[in-house]
Amino acid sequence: MTKAYEDRMIQAVKHLESEYASIRAGRANPGVLDKVTVDYYGTPTPINQVATVSVTEARTLSIQPWDRTLLKDITKAIQISDIGINPIDDGVSVRLNFPAPTEERRKALVKDVSKMAEDSKVAVRNIRRDAMDKFKAAKKSGELTEDDLKNLEDKVQKITDKFIKEIDGIAEKKSKEVMEL
């Protein structure tokens, strides 16, 4: 009965991790391009589906399209995206050079990391609340006994605590990563 709620909590944590992957922390990370799409024969297509994206150096991403006619489109897509890095088109590939973030920028990123973690915790707690409401309704309709209700509530609380702790760990790790740059 608690499996569905646990699955939703897992999704909340996965969402947080994908959000963290898109944080540009000064280190070249192909995840920053996940939300950038290129017009490929009239269809908006993610860059990683039309090109090879690789980290060539610690602060440099190289994007090598399989179809060279896409070079200009990829450059344009990156320029209009919210990445904030100017692409360099060398005729064969597109390079992105990530500058080292300033101390002020790193502190702002850590605040963003904390806010995202808090949003994920709120999502997990909302899932717990939904579960508790569902269990109480089942008790009221006679589907559950008082003991069953108490056991389910305890189980959901333990699952919630586990995910809150996991979110805290992920956020702490990301904050350290951002501040070490």
Describe the structure.
- This protein is of the alpha+beta class and 181 residues long.
- It is built from four helices and six strands.
- It has a four-stranded antiparallel β-sheet with strand order 3-4-6-5, covered by helices on one side. It has a two-stranded antiparallel sheet with strand order 1-2.
- A hairpin with a 2-residue loop joins strand 3 and strand 4.
- Helix 3 packs antiparallel against helix 4.
- The longest helix is centred in the C-terminal third of the chain and has 38 residues.
- The radius of gyration is 22 Å and the shape is elongated.
- The mean pLDDT is 87.
Q: How much of the residues is beta strand, in percent?
A: 5-15%
Major β-sheet, in short?
Answer: 4 strands, antiparallel
Number of strands: 6
How far from one another are the termini?
44 Å
Q: With helices defined by DSSP (H or I, 4 residues minimum), what is the helix count?
A: 4
Decide which structural class fits the backbone. Answer: alpha+beta
Low-confidence stretches: none
Portion of residues within helices = 55-70%
Order of helices and strands: HEEEEHEEHH
Global outline: elongated
**How do the strands of the widest beta sheet line up side by side?**
3-4-6-5
